[in-house]
Amino acid sequence: MNTEEQRLTLTEKIFSEKAERIVKAGDYLLLDVDVALGNDITAPVAIKEFEKFGGRRVYDPERIVFVADHFTPNKDIQSAMQVKMVRDFARTHGIKNFFDVGKMGIEHVLLPEQGLVKSGDLVVGADSHTCTYGALGAFSTGVGSTDLAGVFFTGKAWFKVPEAIRVELKGKFTPGVSGKDLILHLITLLGVDGANYQALEFTGPGVAAVSMDSRFTVSNMAIEAGGKAGLFPVDAVTQEYEESRGIKVNPRSADEEAVYSRSIEIDLGTLEPTVARPFLPDNGATISTLTAEKIKIDQVVIGSCTNGRIEDLRAAAAVLGDEPIAEGLRCIILPGSQEVYLQAMREGLTEKFVSAGCAFSTPTCGPCLGGHMGILAEKEVAVSTTNRNFVGRMGHSSSEVYLASPVVAAATAVKGYLCGPDDAALERLT
Amino acid sequence: MIREGKVFKFGDHINTDEIIPARYLATTDPDELAKNCMEDARPGFGMREDVSGSIMVAGENFGCGSSREHAPIAIKAAGIQCVVAKSFARIFLRNCINIGLPIVELEQTDAMEEGDYLKIDFNAGQVTNTSQGAEYTTNTYPEFLQQIIQSGGWLTYATTHLAPQWVLEGERLNG
């Protein structure tokens, strides 16, 4: 037996499989990718570059996916022209995986749901939250538009195999605590550049109790610690999810003797609802330390590629109960895809939200990046289930964003100030 | 390659929303993006006449956040000669290599002041602060990345060495 083969991180295993030889952290590789993703902001840059460099026909239309999700339904003429460029390019080059308004979802909710990315895949996306698919045990990372154009030309991208940080999970979440709290806690431990150039790999006995939707949330925010990827092993939870999409996958995990740059242990049972205060995702604090401040909130946003899945909407609805949202507060709910939207309707969640006084939107990235559909005015304060709370991220440069889970966001929407779920809400969550 | 100019100094964790806020992303025109370069870090920066030909100096984790290539494109189109930072966020670094925006990782950026004059010699791996009379040595890139940089960027490299001819000619022969 080759001992080298028995000491690989999950990252090294996936790259080794793709390279058809054993590769280690630090190696540079030129590899075919399984999927390359672009959206209505990043794909136009790639299309222009492709044409500038003389591209006439894309190398392989099958591996390209475009999702028009950021400034859609188009917010203005410029953004309509951007989407039109992507739509026309998809048509010209036979790229069938172009998702337009009415069929699209937020890219990182949509691709796993549609079975377009799967465990073991090597994926690049011209969107930093492409790391989301690590939840499926794929190696998936955000790149720029030039990399996407490179895939148009060659089907390939260049990679440096990253080192990995092991995050050993044990125990299980208590009611009202979910993947969002885990990842905000971890980013606070690591710092916003604590995993720069590295992959996060989640392992340990606690993994089995983390739901698929929570895993997507956790992997999604690996980038907020600078991470190149955030990988979960492929286990029974992944297999069940993939099977529901008609995909059969084998279990896959890092070797026990794998070499990591660092190890962190987290007991899920000790985590509390956690919030990232303005203006960086690593500015974390538990909700219990903030509630007494009674921070008045103008707007709550529930949705995004981080927390726009059905489990997120169920949790938010459970916390709302039959309460209306607070006077003077606006609450915008954005399901992550058409499938999530329909499911929310079937389960009566939509009616509950609208009756409570929330706006319920078609899927869009919209307010998360301060694009449209809920921009903050001067000095307004938001609680959002999204992924970034940078200066001016969701609107005016004097506005503020607190990042939180759907549970905290919904509890806040009811009370009007930043807070966690009360006992009755916790009861409904169990 | 030598790049030189007057320093504009920025702090740690300058993110891509500060470099080019999303409200300016409904265009891909480099000149338009350049006008709004660094708008949320230093309002009005992109409209200053002395930005072109200057050097940007920053602290840790420059370019963190979104993958938007509009960020290095805005900096490049603004005429910034080079970005010198203690460290760069991964996707931003990748984008700079891919589009040919020169960047240098250097630990000692705290010592540099706004308005200092910097000269960066990429071949010698040397950064000179002529205002302070200080010299620093930088790391060079691994060979694989040097090939991309010397080609002038990823797409020049990819279209010259990797892309099949039919991709460029529009006709795929023999299926």
Task: Explain this structure.
The complex is a heterodimer of chains A (430) and B (175). With 430 residues, chain A is of the alpha/beta class. Chain A has two domains: 261 residues, Aconitase, domain 3, CATH 3.30.499.10; 156 residues, Aconitase, domain 3 (2-Layer Sandwich). Helix content of chain A is 31%, strand content 18%. Chain A is built from 14 helices and 18 strands. In chain A, the strands form five sheets. In chain A, strands 4-3-2-5-6 form a five-stranded parallel β-sheet, with helices on one face. Chain A has a five-stranded parallel β-sheet with strand order 16-15-14-17-18. In chain A, helix 7 links the parallel strand 9 and strand 10. In chain A, helix 10 runs antiparallel to helix 14. Chain A starts with 9 loop residues before the first helix and ends with a helix. Chain B is of the alpha/beta class. Chain B has one domain: Aconitase, domain 4 (Alpha-Beta Barrel). Chain B contains seven helices and seven strands, in the order βααβαβαββββααα. Chain B is globular. At the A-B interface, helix 2, helix 3 and helix 5 of A face helix 3, helix 4, helix 5, helix 6 and helix 7 of B.
Could you name the key traits of this structure?
heterodimer, A: 430 residues, alpha/beta, Aconitase, domain 3, 2 domains, five-stranded parallel beta sheet, 14 helices, 18 strands, globular, B: 175 residues, Aconitase, domain 4, seven-stranded mixed beta sheet, 18% strand
Topology:
The complex is a heterodimer of chains A (430) and B (175).
Chain A: H1 10-19, E1 28-32, E2 35-39, H2 42-52, E3 64-67, H3 77-93, E4 98-99, H4 107-113, E5 122-125, E6 139-142, H5 145-154, E7 156-160, E8 163-170, H6 179-190, E9 198-203, H7 212-220, E10 229-231, H8 236-244, E11 262-267, E12 274-276, E13 284-286, E14 299-303, H9 304-307, H10 310-320, E15 330-334, H11 338-346, H12 349-356, E16 359-360, E17 381-384, E18 400-403, H13 406-415, H14 423-429
Parallel strand pairs in A: 2-3, 2-5, 3-4, 5-6, 8-9, 8-11, 9-10, 14-15, 14-17, 15-16, 17-18
Antiparallel strand pairs in A: 1-7, 12-13
Chain B: E1 2-9, H1 16-19, H2 30-35, E2 55-58, H3 70-77, E3 82-85, H4 90-99, E4 103-105, E5 117-121, E6 126-129, E7 134-137, H5 143-151, H6 154-162, H7 165-169
Parallel strand pairs in B: 1-2, 2-3, 3-4
Antiparallel strand pairs in B: 1-5, 5-6, 6-7
